[in-house]
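Notes taken during the Thursday session

The instructor put the following on the board and asked us to keep it in front of us for the whole hour. The protein is DUF3784 domain-containing protein. We were told not to look anything up and to reason only from what is written here. First, the residues (103 in total):
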Amino acid sequence: MNGTCIVFGLLFLTAGILFFCGKIHGRLSLWKNMPENERQNIKIRPLCRNIGFLIALSGILFLTAGVFAWFLNYAFVWAMIGWMVTAGLDVLYIGKSRRYQVK
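Then, after some discussion, the predicted C-alpha cells were revealed:
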C-alpha cells in the first residue's frame, strides 16, 4: 500500500464528488469575481458534472495505485497518460461546443 497515493486519491475523489454535485464551484474566487452577465451565459451544472467526473476519475486512479502495488508498478503511468489525453480532449470539447453556453 502506498499512503501518498491513497491520500491523493481520497482528496481528488472528494473534490470530484463535490464538483459533480455542484457544491464547490461557488467557493472558487474566479467564479466569485466573474461578472454576473458572464455567469448567466454559462450552464454551470453540466460543466460541474463534466469536470467533477474527470477529477473523481483521477482520484480513482490514485486510489487504485495506492491499494494495488501491481497497478502502481505496471499500469499507473499509462493510466495517467490516458487520463491526461482524455482531459485534454475534454477541454477542447468544452471550448468548442456550445453545450455549456446558454443560448
